[in-house]
Design brief:
Blueprint: H1 3-44, H2 50-59, H3 61-107
């Protein structure tokens, strides 16, 4: 385990993690806008009741596709998050081992 490699991995993955998180947040926010747009479309097609408009919006293939995109964005973000966390843990494990080695050396002096 090399702490420099782990730190480099963190630097390499940081931008991808940021992009993934931004995509997830965007999709979460856009989901509400898309629902409103689809409900508005239902209203123009004669669906008056808000609950019926919502039902139509949530069942719309575009809304379902957006949810699938959100699922993929969350999966990618979480994968990168845990890759970064694993690299951080590698560094912490190395630091702990170094401290233990110093303690053992001092104990035998």
């Amino acid at each position: 385990m090399n702490p420099e490699e782990a730190a480099e991995l963190i630097r390499e993955k940081a931008a991808a993690f940021g992009k993934s998180k931004a995509q997830r947040v965007y999709l979460e926010e856009f989901r509400r806008s898309k629902k409103a747009m689809l409900m508005k479309d239902s209203l123009t097609m004669g669906v008056e009741a808000a609950n019926a408009q919502e039902r139509e919006a949530l069942a719309d293939p575009e809304y379902v596709a957006l949810l699938k995109g959100l699922r993929e964005a969350v999966q990618q973000e979480e994968t990168l998050k845990w890759e970064l966390e694993a690299a951080r843990l590698d560094i912490e494990i190395w630091r702990t081992r170094q401290a233990t080695e110093r303690m053992v050396i001092r104990a035998h002096e």
